[in-house]
Amino acid sequence: MSEEGRFKIQLEQREGFQINVAFDWKRAPDLLMDEPPPLGEQAGPNASRLLAAAAANCLSASLLYCVFKDEPPANALRAEAVCVMVRNEKKRLRVGRLEITLILGEAVIQSPRFARCKDLYEDFCVVSASIRQGIPMRITLQDEAGNLIHTSE
Asked: Of 38, 43, 45, 144, which is most buried by a Cβ count within 10 Å?
């Protein structure tokens, strides 16, 4: 596989299980990660939470780009990410699956491009497409009233 791009994120342990994440973008603030008790103090998200957030964010951005290109309107969608933790045969905790729901505002649903994009956008999400190679995902699109618009497994 060819290498299309690279970036470096630097992590530094502070105290206990708190780790400061410094991104390679100057305008992006650092992020403090931590583990839940009894290991950490839950002072920031842990890696599993960031994985779920990354998948939901990438899917959101992919759909917005497909529907609106460079100028999406404000507050056009919300997302929810559920990370289901399971134990493997060795009793080690693992991410068993992710369930992502995109809650679409009228601007998205009424867009002339939406009908085509709802079947395309997932394939352009770098993160979720990569995660799906090892972790099952269910992605659901619904309107603000909770009505199902589209789903994929």
From this structure: 45
- The stretch 84-91 carries a mean pLDDT of 97
- The DSSP-derived string for 46-99 is -HHHHHHHHHHHHHHHHHHHHHHTT-PPTT-EEEEEEEEEEE-TT--EEEEEEE
Enumerate residues 6+ apart whose C-beta is below 8 A from 151. 138, 139, 140, 141
Residues 6+ positions from 64 with CB-CB distance below 8 Å: 72, 76, 77, 108
The boundaries of the domain holding residue 146 are: 47-152
Indicate the DSSP class of residue 41: -
> What kind and span of H or E run contains 128?
helix 126-131
List the strands of the sheet with 31-33, edge to edge: 10-13, 19-22, 31-33
Range with the poorest average pLDDT among 35-49, 56-70, 133-147: 133-147
| Contact by Cβ (8 Å): 39, 17 | yes
CATH number for the domain including 139? 3.30.300.20
Looking at residue 60, its pLDDT comes to 98
